[in-house]
């Protein structure tokens, strides 16, 4: 696997995969979900419940168009699950859970605790009202990913504060859209975001895109954003804030609009964390990429320093990462396994 800037994800690679991944993909099963009652299930949760615990084969839950008001957990003993939607008419999974009701991380509409999860062409939304600074526990997560080796292709994550809890594990997001106001990507994951839009919803005095939770400098966590777009209005959005002791966030080859605060990064009023966080930028473009007013602890990475963050091997991709499923593939495996 090469550098993202130069080499696209191959659709033919299989030889380097871990054996359990290759075996899981050799026997693929499809479960259909449709709002109109023409499929096996009308609810995603019921389809998921039909999968055996300890499953070791890829199971594609093919979700028809429409809005599914459900709160779903893919529990840790249900690995190799794919949620697949129509790229031209994405299904919406929505729920209005808040921190006041469930605690922040468990407020998520979709919780993924299993390994090897794939989401493709789906919208995950938390429909709770926008936090107003007065209501306690108004944070509302759209998705929490706590399993390892999860992939998201052409997905949208909709919320305000704490939209995506990228909690722990290695994750890959490609061609996605994430919107929010404060800390709308947060957690301790080691994740690569490629060609994904981070959209700042205007209206708050200060916006923060990322709060990374690496707790010490030996930790493996860190978010790398490559060829992403930071969009919105207001010139008040920080690329990240110092949340935990050693948060690590890097933007490379990104288009940064003028929504970005000229200082770029926030120490969150904890000046001692300036020495321990790792906030990096490399070859970005756009009005928000002007570094002349950046905080002193932001790192402008050299070519050598940037290499680890712009490679698919940042997340050990050769062992597990597969191209996105297609409609043809879903139809094919559905026919041969029914």
UniProtKB/TrEMBL annotation:
Which compartments is it annotated to reside in?
Answer: Secreted, Cell wall
Keywords on record: Aspartyl esterase, Cell wall, Hydrolase, Secreted, Signal
Q: What's a single GO MF annotation on this record?
A: pectinesterase activity
In Pfam terms, one family for this protein is: Pectinesterase
Q: Where is the active site?
A: 183
Q: Which reaction does it catalyse?
A: [(1->4)-alpha-D-galacturonosyl methyl ester](n) + n H2O = [(1->4)-alpha-D-galacturonosyl](n) + n methanol + n H(+)
EC class of this enzyme?
hydrolase
Transmembrane segment boundaries: none
Gene Ontology biological-process entries: cell wall modification; pectin catabolic process
The annotated pathway is: Glycan metabolism; pectin degradation; 2-dehydro-3-deoxy-D-gluconate from pectin: step 1/5
| EC code(s) of this entry | 3.1.1.11
Identify the residues that the record assigns to the Pectinesterase catalytic domain, covering every copy. Answer: 31-316
Q: Which family does it belong to?
A: Belongs to the pectinesterase family.
Q: What is this protein called?
A: Pectinesterase
- Give the organism the record lists: Carnegiea gigantea
């Amino acid at each position: 696997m090469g550098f993202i800037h130069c080499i696209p994800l191959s659709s033919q690679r299989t030889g380097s995969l871990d054996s359990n991944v290759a075996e899981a993909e050799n026997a693929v099963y499809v479960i259909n979900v449709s709002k109109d009652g023409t499929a096996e299930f009308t609810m995603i949760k019921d389809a998921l419940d039909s999968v055996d615990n300890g499953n070791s084969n890829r199971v594609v839950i093919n979700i028809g168009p429409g809005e599914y008001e459900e709160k779903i957990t893919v529990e840790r003993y249900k690995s190799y699950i794919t949620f697949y939607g129509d790229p031209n008419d994405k299904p919406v999974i929505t729920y209005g859970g808040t921190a006041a009701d469930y605690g922040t991380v468990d407020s998520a509409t979709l919780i993924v605790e299993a390994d090897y999860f794939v989401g493709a062409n789906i919208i995950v939304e938390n429909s709770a009202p926008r936090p107003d600074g007065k209501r306690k526990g108004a944070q509302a997560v759209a998705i929490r990913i706590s399993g390892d080796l999860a992939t998201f292709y052409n997905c949208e994550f909709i919320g305000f504060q704490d939209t995506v809890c990228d909690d722990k594990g290695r994750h890959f997001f490609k061609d996605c859209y994430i919107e929010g106001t404060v800390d709308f990507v947060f957690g301790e994951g080691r994740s690569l975001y490629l060609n994904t839009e981070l959209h700042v919803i205007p209206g708050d005095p200060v916006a923060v895109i990322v709060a990374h939770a690496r707790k010490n400098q030996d930790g493996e966590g860190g978010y790398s954003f490559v060829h992403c777009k930071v969009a919105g209005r207001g010139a008040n959005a920080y690329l990240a804030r110092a949340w935990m002791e050693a948060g690590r966030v890097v933007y490379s080859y990104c288009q940064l609009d003028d929504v970005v605060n000229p200082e770029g990064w926030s120490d969150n009023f904890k000046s001692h964390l300036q020495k321990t966080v790792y906030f990096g930028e490399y070859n970005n473009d756009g009005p928000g990429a002007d570094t002349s007013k950046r905080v002193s602890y932001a790192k402008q990475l050299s070519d050598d320093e940037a290499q680890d963050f712009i490679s698919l091997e940042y997340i050990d991709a050769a062992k597990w990462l597969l191209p996105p499923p297609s409609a043809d593939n879903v139809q094919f495996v559905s026919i041969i396994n029914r």
